[in-house]
Specification:
Layout (H helix, E strand, L loop, with lengths): L3 H13 L11 H15 L5 H20 L4 H23 L5 H14 L11 H73 L8 H6 L1
C-alpha cells in the first residue's frame, strides 16, 4: 500500500514530465485512496495477477465517473495516475529494502516500460450508445413531468368556459317564457269585456204597444 508522501512525490514527477495534467492535482488523492482500499483486500504483495485486477478495478471506477459526466481528458490523467500507483505498489512489493527516491524512480521506469504514459481513457462504441440513450430517456422523462404539471391548468380553464355558456343559455330561456305568458293573459280578456257591455231589452206585448 502506497504512502501518501511518496505517492505525492510520484505525482509531482509525472506532472513535471507532462504525463498527467497538473490542473487535477488535488483530485489525484481520490485515485490513490481508491487503489489503496483495493490493495488492502488483495494483500501487500502485488503480483502480475493482482496488478491486472487493480487495472480492471480502476477502469470500472473511471466508467462510473464518465457516466456521471466527467470529461475524457480528465479521466485519461486519472488512468495514468492510477497505473503509476499500481507500478509503485508492484516495485515496493518486489524489494525487501529500497530507498524512497529509488522506489519512485523505479516505479516511473516500470510505468514507461509498460507504455502506460501513452494510454488514454477510451470508451467502446456500445457504451457511447448506451449513455446517449440514457440521456435521451432522462430528457423525455423531464419533458413528460413538465407536461403533467401544465395539464391541470388547461382543464380548469375549460371548465370555466363551459359554466359561462350554460349560464347564458338559462337567462335566454327565462325571457322567452315571460313573453309567452303575457300574451296568453291579454287574449282571453277582450271577449269578456264585450259580453258585459251588451244589455237585453225586455219584450213588450201587443196591448202594451197599442196603449203605451
Amino acid at each position: 500500500m502506497a504512502e501518501a508522501k511518496l505517492v505525492a512525490d510520484l505525482d509531482k514527477k509525472l506532472m513535471e514530465e507532462g504525463v498527467i495534467d497538473p490542473r487535477y492535482m488535488d483530485d489525484y488523492k481520490k485515485v490513490h485512496s481508491m487503489l489503496n482500499t483495493h490493495v488492502r483486500k488483495t494483500g501487500k504483495i502485488l503480483s502480475e495477477e493482482t496488478f491486472d485486477r487493480g487495472d480492471q478495478k480502476l477502469r470500472k471506477w473511471l466508467m462510473v465517473l464518465f457516466r456521471q459526466g466527467a470529461p475524457q481528458e480528465k479521466l485519461s490523467s486519472y488512468l495514468r495516475c492510477g497505473l503509476a500507483h499500481l507500478c509503485f505498489d508492484f516495485i515496493e512489493s518486489s524489494y525487501h529494502a529500497i530507498s524512497a527516491d529509488d522506489l519512485v524512480a523505479r516505479a516511473i521506469q516500470s510505468f514507461k516500460m509498460r507504455n502506460f504514459h501513452k494510454t488514454y481513457f477510451r470508451i467502446a462504441p456500445t457504451e457511447v450508445k448506451s449513455t446517449s440513450a440514457k440521456k435521451k430517456k432522462d430528457s423525455r422523462k423531464t419533458a413528460k413531468k413538465k407536461v403533467k404539471k401544465t395539464a391541470p391548468r388547461r382543464k380548469s380553464a375549460g371548465k370555466k368556459t363551459v359554466k359561462k355558456k350554460a349560464a347564458k343559455k338559462k337567462t335566454v330561456q327565462k325571457k322567452i317564457v315571460k313573453k309567452k305568458t303575457a300574451k296568453k293573459r291579454k287574449v282571453p280578456g277582450k271577449p269578456r269585456g264585450k259580453r258585459k257591455g251588451k244589455s237585453r231589452k225586455p219584450k213588450r206585448g201587443i196591448f202594451a204597444r197599442l196603449f203605451g
